[in-house]
Amino acid sequence: MDKLLTVEFWQMGGYALYVWGSYGAALLVFVWNLLAPYLKQRELLSRETRDQRS
Amino acid sequence: MTLWTWLKSLTSPPIFFALAQRLGFWFGLISIPLLAYGLIGGLLLAPPDYQQGEGYRIIYIHVPAAWMSLFIYSLMAAAGGIALIWRIKVWECVLTAAAPIGASFTALALVTGMLWGKPMWGTYWVWDARLTSELVLLFLYVGVIVLQQSIADARAAARACALLAIVGFVNVPIVHYSVEWWNTLHQGPSVTKFGKPTMDASMLVPLLVMTLGFMSFFGHVLMRRVQNELLSRGEISRG
Amino acid sequence: MSALKAVFMRELQLAARSRADWAQPVFFYILVSLLFPLGVAPNSTALPLFVPAILWMGALLAALLGLERVFRSDFEDGTLEQLFLAPVPVSFLVLGKLLAAWLVLGLPLALLSPLLGLLLGLSMHAAGVVMLGLLLGTLSLFFLGGFSSALLVGLPRAGVLLPVLVLPLVSPILIFGAGAARAAMSGSSAEAPLYFLAAIAVFCICLIPLATATALRNAFE
Amino acid sequence: MSALKAVFMRELQLAARSRADWAQPVFFYILVSLLFPLGVAPNSTALPLFVPAILWMGALLAALLGLERVFRSDFEDGTLEQLFLAPVPVSFLVLGKLLAAWLVLGLPLALLSPLLGLLLGLSMHAAGVVMLGLLLGTLSLFFLGGFSSALLVGLPRAGVLLPVLVLPLVSPILIFGAGAARAAMSGSSAEAPLYFLAAIAVFCICLIPLATATALRNAFE
Amino acid sequence: MLISVKDLVVARGGRTLLTGICFGLDREQALHVAGSNGSGKTSLLESLCGLRAPEHGSVEGLESADVFHWIGHKNALNPALTVVENLRFWCRVNNASEDRIENALDRLQLRAQQHRACRELSVGQRRRAALARLLAVRRPLWLLDEPLSGLDAGGVDLFIEMLKAHLALGGAAIITSHQNLPPLNGMRRLQL
Amino acid sequence: MLISVKDLVVARGGRTLLTGICFGLDREQALHVAGSNGSGKTSLLESLCGLRAPEHGSVEGLESADVFHWIGHKNALNPALTVVENLRFWCRVNNASEDRIENALDRLQLRAQQHRACRELSVGQRRRAALARLLAVRRPLWLLDEPLSGLDAGGVDLFIEMLKAHLALGGAAIITSHQNLPPLNGMRRLQL
Ligand code: HEM
Ligand SMILES: Nc1ncnc2c1ncn2[C@@H]1O[C@H](COP(=O)(O)OP(=O)(O)OP(=O)(O)O)[C@@H](O)[C@H]1O
Ligand SMILES: Nc1ncnc2c1ncn2[C@@H]1O[C@H](COP(=O)(O)OP(=O)(O)OP(=O)(O)O)[C@@H](O)[C@H]1O
Ligand SMILES: [Mg+2]
Ligand SMILES: [Mg+2]
Q: Which residue from B221, B226, B206 is spatially nearest to B89, judged by alpha carbons?
C-alpha cells in the first residue's frame, strides 16, 4: 500500500497521461452505467405511482 | 427454486422482474471485490512489463472492455434469436437493455486502445482491421439503439433490433480473428491461447479477475435495465 | 417458383415504366465519382490511391438511394399484406424482389464502374477487378440494404436512418472490395478478397431473404 | 408569414417525433466520412488531401436521401392539394419546408464537419473553412434536393432529365466548396470561393422555391 | 351567388368527361352531385376548386382561397401527427384561430382519439378528423368528395347535422356521394 | 366448417378491443360484421387472416393460404401497372391460371379501363379492380373489409350478385360494411 504514496506510482513510468486517462475513462463508463438506469427506474416508478393515484 | 419455476421465470415478466431484483443485487455485490482485487492486482501487485514498462497496465481496462464488447453483442444476438423464435418478451427486453451497456464498453475499449496506441505505436489511430472492425462494432450498437428509438411500438422495435443484432453478428468473428487474418499492428492473441498463455501468471490473474468483475458489473446493470424496460412497457404493475 | 418469377418480372416491368427510378442512382454514381476528384487538388498524384475507395463508396451510396424505396410502395398500397397471404414463403418473394432490384439498380452500377475507373486513371486490369468486385459486392449490398430497409418500412424518416443501419453491415464488403482493387493496382493477386466477396454474396443470398421476410412481417404487428 | 411558420414548425415537430431523430444525421455523417478511409490503404498519408471531398460528398448524400420524401408523402396523403388551396403562395410554404429540412438535417452536418475534419487530419483553419463552406453549401444543396424531389412528384417522366437540371447547379457548389477547403489547407485565401458559395445560396433560396412550387403544381394536372 | 359555373367542360387524360356543366349556388343551398364510378365527379370538384384547369368554361366566386373548403378522397392528415396537431396545423396555414378545434373534435366525437397519431386511427376515425377541419376553420362554401366514405351510421347522421347547421348559417355545399342523402331544404341533385 | 373462431381476443396498441368472439361459418353462409368506427372490425379481420397475432383464442380453417381471399381498405394495386397487369400478377403469385381474368373484368365492368394504369382510375374503379381479384382467383372463403366503399349504386348491385353466386357455389364470406346489405340466404349479422 505504501506504493500508493510514491510519486513513481502516479507517474507510471512516464505513461501517466495514458494509464490514468484509461482508468478515468473506465470510471466514467462505470458511473454512467450505474447512474443512468438507477435514475430511469426512479422516474418510472414515480410515474407509475402517479398514474395509479390519478 | 425448482427447475420448472426457474424456466418459467425466464418467460414471465413479473417473475423475471423479481428474479432480476435478486440477481442484480448479487451481481453487484460480487463485482465489488472482483473489481477491487483487479485494480489492486493490476496497478500495484503485477510487475512492470519488460518491454512496455508501466504503460501496459492499460491492459486491465482495455482487454476486459474489448472482450465485453464482443460478449455483449453475442449475447444480444442470442437473446434476439430467442425472442424471435419463441416470442418471449423478457428476452426482447434483455436485448434492448444490453445495447447501451455494450456500446459503452465498446467505446471504452476504443478509447483505452487509442490511449495505449499513442505510446506504443506512436499514433492514436490507424485504419487497420482490428481497430476498424471494433469501430464498426460500435456503429452496430448505435444502429440497434437508434432503430429501437425510432419505432414507436416497443415490441415491434425490439423484434426489429433482434433481427439487426443477428445479422450484424457476423462482425463479431471478424473483430476477433482480424489479427490472424490480416497482418495488423495490433497484438495477436496472447491471453486467449489456452494451454500456454504467453503472459506471466502475476499479470494474468488480475486480468482474469478484472474480466470477471466487468462481467458481474455488466450483470448488475443489465438486470436494472431489464427491469426498467419491463416497467416502461407496462408489463409490471406494482400495486 | 412461378411466384418468385412473377415478383421478379413485375419489378422489371415497373422499372421499365418509371425510368427515373433507376436513372437516379446511376446519375448519382457518375456525379460522385467525377466530382470527387474535383474536390482534390488538380493533378494530384495521390488520386489513383483513392480510386478504388471512390468507386466503392460511390456504388454503396448510390445503392442506398435506390434501396430506400424497395419495399415502401408495396407497403403503402397494400401489396405487401397480400404477399404475406400468398401460398408461397415470403422469403421467396423477397428473393425475387431483391434480385430484380439488384438487376435494375445494382448491375448498372457495377457495369459502369470500369468505365469510371478508366476515366480516373485505373489500369485495364484493375478496372476489371473493380467491376468483378462490384458485381459480387453490390449483390451483397442489395441484400443487406433490402434487409435494412425492411426494418425501416413505414417509418417517416427512413431515408436518413437507412445508412445508419446499412453502412456498418456492409463495411466488411467495402474493405474486401477496395482491398482487391488495391491489390490489382499494385500487381499482386486479387483472388483471395474476391473469393471472400463471393462467399459473402452467397451467404447473403441464402440467408438474408429469411431475415427480411421476418422484418417485413414485424412491420405489420 | 404565419403559414410559413406553421409549415416550418410542423417539419420540426415531425423530426422531433422520435427521440433518436436528432442523432440520425450526425451518425449518418460520421459513418459516411469514416467509411471512406476504409477503402484506402491503411495509414495512407495522402488521406487529408481527400478530406474536403469526403465531407462534401456526405452533405450531398444527406440532401438527396433526406429530402427524397419531403414532397412525396405530402402528395400521397393529400396535404399538398390542401396547401395549394391555402390563402398563401405555395413557394412560401416550400421555403418553410426546405428551411426546416435544412435545419434538421443540414445544419448538424455543417456544425459537425470541422470535428470530423480534425479527426481526419485537417488543420484548425481548414476545418473552419470547411464548416463555413458547408453552412452555405448545404443550404444550396438542400434546396436543390427539394427541387429534385418535387420534380419526381410533379413530373415523374422528367426524372430522367433530373441530372441535366440539377448537375449544372450541384457541380459548382462542390467545386467551390472543396476549392475553398483546399485553399485553406494550402494557406492561401479562401474568401473568393466562399463568396461564390454565398451567392449560390442566395440564388437558391430566392429562386428555387418558385421553381419547386411550379413543379409541384404539375402533380395535379 | 357564392359560386356560378358556366358551360364547364372537364377532361381527363385526353378524354372529355363532362360538357356543358352550368349551375349556380346561393347561400343556404346545397348540390348533391351523383353519378356512376368514373363519371367525373372528383374531376369536376377539382376543377371547381382550381386544382385542375377546366378545358373550357368559367367558374366564378372561388377566386379567393378562403371562401371554400375542399375535402377530397384523401384526408390530408399527416400520419405521424396527432389529430389535434393536424387540425392546428391547418388552422395556422389558413390564418384561422385555433379556438374552434375543441368544438370540432367534440362534434365529431374524436375527443378520445385527439392525442393519438393519425396512423393509429381507424379509417372512419380518420375521415372524421378530416371533416373536423370544416368546423375548425369556418368557410361559406364546402366542396366535399365522398364525405361519407368510411363513416358509420352514427357518423353519417353527424355529418347531416353538420351540413344542416352549415346551411342554416348561410353556407352552401357541393357534395358527391354514392349514398343517398336525406332530402334537405335547399338541396338539389345534379346527375352526371 | 370453413372457419371456426373460438374465444378470440383482439387488441391494438395495448387496448383490448374485442373479447370472446366466437363463431363458425359453413359453406353457403355469410357473416356481416357491423360496428361503429373504431370498434375493431378491421383488426378482427386482420387477426382472422393471420396478418395480426390475436392476443388470445384460436382461428381454425385458415391455416392454408389458398383457402381464403383478403381484401382490406387498401386495394393492393400497383399504381404504375394496368388493371390487367395487376390481376395477372396476383394470379401468378397465387399459382392460379389467368383464364378467369377476362371474365372477372367483364363482370365488374372494367373492360374499358383494363389497359389503363391504376393511378389513372377513379376511386370506385380501383375498388372494382380490387374486387376483380375475387373472381380471377377462386377461393372458398372471402374476408372483405368495406368492399362497398367507393362503389356506385350499380357497383353495389354487382357486388351483391357476385356474393350470391359465390355463396350458391358453396363459398362463404365475412364482410364488414357500414351500409346495410340486403338480406340473403345464409347471411348472419355480428354486431361488435
Ligand atoms: C483503438 C485501438 C485499439 C482497439 C480498437 C483495440 C481493440 C481490441 C479488441 C476488440 C480486443 C479483443 C479481441 C478479441 O478478444 O478477439 C483487443 C484485445 C487486446 N488488445 Fe487491443 N485494441 C486497440 C489498441 C491496442 C493497443 C495499442 C494494444 C497494445 C499495444 C492492445 C493490446 C491488446 C491486447 C494485449 C489484447 C488481448 C489479446 C488477446 O489475448 O486476445 N490493443 N483489443
Ligand atoms: N396502428 C394502430 N395502433 C394503435 N391503435 C390502433 C391502430 N390502428 C387502429 N387502432 C385503433 O384500434 C381500434 C380499431 O381499429 P379498426 O381499424 O379495427 O376499426 P374499424 O372497426 O375497422 O373502424 P372503421 O369502421 O373506422 O374502419 C380503433 O379505435 C383505432 O383507433
Ligand atoms: N390521372 C388520370 N389520368 C387519366 N384519366 C384519369 C385520371 N384519373 C381519373 N381518370 C379518369 O377520369 C374519369 C373520371 O374520374 P373521377 O375520379 O373524376 O371519377 P369519379 O366520378 O370521381 O368516380 P368515383 O365515383 O369512382 O370516385 C374516370 O373514367 C377515370 O378513369
Ligand atoms: Mg371520385
Ligand atoms: Mg376498418
A: B226
CA-based nearest residue to E189, from E3, E25, E34: E34
**pLDDT tens profile F28-50:** 999 999 999 999 999 999 999 98
Q: How far is it, in rounded angstroms, from Cα C74 to Cα C96?
A: 14
The closest of D170, E60, C164 to B145, measured between CA atoms, is C164
Give the list of residues 6+ apart from residue B87 with CB closer than 8 angstroms, or none: none
From the CA of D21, how far away is ligand 2's center (Å)?
27
Residue F150 grid coordinates: 367507393
**DSSP SS3 for F115:** coil
pLDDT in tens, E118-135: 999 999 999 999 999 999
Average pLDDT over residues C10-21: 84
b or e along B24-37 (b: 16 or more beta carbons within 10 Å of the residue's beta carbon)?
A: beebbebbeebbeb
Residues 6+ apart with CB under 8 A from D24: B146, C157, C160, C161, C164
ipTM value greater than 0.95:
no
Low-confidence ranges of chain D (pLDDT < 70): 19-20, 41-44, 156-164
Q: Which amino acid is at B226?
A: V
Q: Which residues of chain C does F50 touch, with a Cβ-Cβ cutoff of 8 Å?
A: 84-85
E128 interaction partners in chain F (CB closer than 8 Å): 37
The reply to whether the predicted model has a pTM over 0.90 is yes
Chains within contact range of chain D (3+ C-beta pairs < 8 Å) = B, C, E
* Nearest protein Cα to ligand 3, atom 6: F120
Residues 6+ apart with CB under 8 A from B89: B13, B83, B155, B230, B233, B235
Cβ–ligand 2 distance for E123 under 6 Å, the answer yes
Could C215 and B160 be called an inter-chain contact, meaning their C-beta atoms sit closer than 8 Å?
A: yes
Contacts of B39 (CB under 8 A, 6+ apart): B60, B210
Give the end-to-end CA distance of chain A in Å, rounded to a whole number.
Answer: 57
